[in-house]
Amino acid sequence: MPARSLSLLAGAVLLGAGIATGGWFVGHGFALGRSPDRHVTVKGLAEREVRSDLALWPLRFVATGNELATVERQIAIDGRKVRGFLERQGIPATAIEVSRLEVIDLIAQAWRQGPVDERFIVAQTLMVRSSEVELVETAHQAIAELIAEGVVLSSDGGPSSAPVYLFTGLNDIKPDMIAVATRNARASAEQFAADAGSRLAGIRRANQGVFEILPRDQAPGIAAEQQVAKTVRVVSTIDYLLED
């Protein structure tokens, strides 16, 4: 066979081998790229009951009349009654702050029509801020004593006269709760893997979840800040890889 023909034949053989080899690598790589990402997504729940460590109690009281000076004197008298009541309940003066003073002249309101029985409304708000949550809770239960003294409590146009109970120690319990949620999630994943004849190969993705502060006794219309006892909850979502 002529040399030129041998050269062409050899080139054709090499080209064919190269295409075949290249095709094998392309096919193999495609197979690897399409290999299934086997994983299981599980959720881990952690809950803890806590007690509020801060109480905020706005006490808003109102006096009305046609003479501003008279109404102001009455609101000052009522203010002393409120402070006296709180001190009798064991709440010190250092925990009581003047929040705001409101003075409303009904005649000066351009939109109001018709006669006005009492021209001036004066409202004073005293804010109790205390870490003695149980003390505030007990005082609130005795609020009828203050009403019996003639103090008119009102939340109209202002804050509610009920205490607000807060939990401020969330950062202190976060690490332990995340650990519990993670353990619970892994236990669920291991059970799933065992049922599927697989085993866990590591974490593919993890979401810590959002911490929620909920009322311990959950019922319609009850908010967490209304209860001293609360439930802190977090649900972590974790994807675990599976292998045979």
UniProtKB/TrEMBL annotation:
Single biological process term from Gene Ontology: DNA damage response
Domain of life: Bacteria
InterPro entries noted in UniProt: 26kDa_periplasmic_antigen, SIMPL/DUF541, UCP029033
Protein name according to UniProt: SIMPL domain-containing protein
Organism: Marinimicrococcus flavescens
